């Protein structure tokens, strides 16, 4: 190791995620997007059809869900199986890398849920309570 520079093995292990042109950023962007996290969490429970996924992931539009699934599939995290039937039937499941990614983002989501009282301002808490998305019992 040269003074002030990481060893080559550290560089290869870690990548260059802080570099503007690092390809891992595209994968991180998809995995850590709001819809990416939620889709991975739902699929960790097993295979789902598109309509079932849309029902489980509250608030996602059909277009946004399709885009999220396409990107997760492009990065090898989701497996899409289309059956040649009428009407068309498509199922989505996690690949082995998708299972691991889902486990990691679920841990982050759990941390957020546990710490939500500390992460929301009083105004945000009041708004969430008014919307029915948060209760004082969460504290």
Commentary on this structure:
By secondary structure, the protein is mainly alpha-helical. Helix content is about 55%, strand content about 10%. It has helices at about 10-15, 25-30, 35-45, 50-55, 60-75, 95-120, 120-130, and strands at about 50, 80-85, 90-95. The chain has a 3-stranded antiparallel beta sheet with strand order 1-3-2. Helix 3 crosses helix 6. The longest helix is centred in the last third of the chain and has 24 residues, at about 95-120. The chain is flat, with a radius of gyration of 19 Å. The model has no long low-confidence stretch (mean pLDDT about 85).
Helix content: 55-70%
Through-space gap between termini: 48 Å
As laid out across the biggest beta sheet, the strand order is 1-3-2
Q: Return the string of H and E elements.
A: HHHEHHEEHH
The rounded Rg comes to 19 Å
Mean pLDDT: 87
Q: List unreliable stretches of 5+ residues.
A: none
* Main sheet record: 3 strands, antiparallel
Q: Give the helix/strand class.
A: mainly alpha
Overall body shape:
flat
Strand content: 5-15%
Number of strands: 3
Number of helices: 7
């Amino acid at each position: 190791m040269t003074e002030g520079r990481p060893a080559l093995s550290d560089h290869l292990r870690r990548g260059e995620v802080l570099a503007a042109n690092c390809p891992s950023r595209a994968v991180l962007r998809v995995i850590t997007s709001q819809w990416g996290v939620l889709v991975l969490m739902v699929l960790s429970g097993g295979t789902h059809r598109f309509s079932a996924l849309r029902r489980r992931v509250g608030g996602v539009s059909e277009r946004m869900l399709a885009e999220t699934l396409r990107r997760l599939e492009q990065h090898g995290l989701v497996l899409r199986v289309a059956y040649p039937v009428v009407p068309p039937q498509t199922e989505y499941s996690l690949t082995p890398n998708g299972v691991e990614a889902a486990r990691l983002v679920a841990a982050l989501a759990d941390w957020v849920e546990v710490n939500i009282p500390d992460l929301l301002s009083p105004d945000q808490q009041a708004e969430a309570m008014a919307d029915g998305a948060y209760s004082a019992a969460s504290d």
